[in-house]
Amino acid sequence: MRMKRLLQISGFAIAMACAGLSVAKSVVVGGKGFTEQLIINEITRQALEAHDFDVDARTGMGSVVLRQAQENGQIDLYWEYTGTSLITYNKIEEPLNPQETYDTVKELDAEKGLVWLEPSKANNTYALAMRRTDAQEKEINSISDLADYINDGNTISFATNAEFAGRPDGLRPMQEIYGFEFGRPNIKRMTAGLTYQALKDEQVDLSLVFSTDGRIPAFDFYVLHDNKDFFPSYALTPVVRQDTLETYPELEKILNDLSALLDDEVMAQLNAQVDVEKKTAREVAQQFLAEHEREV
Question: Nearest-CA neighbor of 283 among 51, 53, 49, 43?
Answer without folding.
Answer: 43
